[in-house]
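User: Predict the complex with iron/sulfur cluster.
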Amino acid sequence: MRAFINKEACIGCGLCASICPEVFEMDDEDKAAVIADPVPSDVEDSAQEAADSCPTEAISIEE
Ligand code: SF4
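Assistant: Here is the predicted structure with iron/sulfur cluster placed in the model:
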């Protein structure tokens, strides 16, 4: 699994980094960044949850 951020859609709410800090963190511009590529198998569920929870659907998941 891989995760991608659409930086233009990200509003910097921090939710994804809060739900799945193993994969997402906030960058210097307060946009989400992927820090684990590919997503480790033991956090795939929380990465998916983060994607599903993003208010602007800025996170896409590639299986
Ligand atoms: S949940 Fe969505 S909008 Fe919020 S920081 Fe993450 S990618 Fe950006």
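The mean pLDDT is 98.
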